[in-house]
């Protein structure tokens, strides 16, 4: 009797394959991103770190379908990305809430567009209001919220749409240091609960270590992947972990890598 075995091929959640980007300018062309390749697993939290102008936001915009790659391709669940889509949620540094909608209406906006029942919209909004700690603010408008509260709503809105991956472009960059630290913990709580795959762009070394499973360091422009550093700090993480020797060692390594690239760009 002959037995047969089916081999299941493992596919990363997100694959960046030889992706490059060149912008046309009045004086010719500018290479923002050299051919870059990396992959992200299901449920992984990856941060991209690099000097200013290295192309890290360009990578994110290409994954989000907001920019078209000059070379290479991006695959999500094995399928090529062609333009924006509901399978990718995006959170930017600027506050992108709809000012004429309440907090609750902003969170459930995508569900309403999908034709979800009012009960489902209410249930999902209630769940994320609790998760991000904004119960009692559901009927407030964005103008009545602080910067940190607005970003909490933006994160909740993206998660409420149940995307395959969450793309975040320096979402806490405009916040003061204290609020930024709190928002990092809020995001980790939401990620641990949702198990979503997250690609997060930042220029903050401490933030990149605290949040990530892996930090991808990019070179100076034209950007390319310089090094991948797995972060093995214990989860769930508390703010106090930033004071440990292990955290300090990661920080020193990353600061040296970024300094090398920053000097090249001068």
Automatic annotation (TrEMBL):
Domain of life: Bacteria
Naturally occurring in which organism (per UniProt): Sutcliffiella tianshenii
GO MF annotation list: ATP binding; hydrolase activity
Protein name (Swiss-Prot/TrEMBL): NitT/TauT family transport system ATP-binding protein/sulfonate transport system ATP-binding protein
Keyword presence, rRNA-binding: no
Entry keyword set: ATP-binding, Hydrolase, Nucleotide-binding, Translocase, Transport
Keyword Nucleotide-binding found: yes
InterPro entries with a match to the protein in the record: AAA+_ATPase, ABC_transporter-like_ATP-bd, ABC_transporter-like_CS, ABC_transporter_ATP-bind, P-loop_NTPase
Pfam families recorded: ABC_tran
EC number(s) on file: 3.6.3.-
ABC transporter domain sequence ranges: 14-245
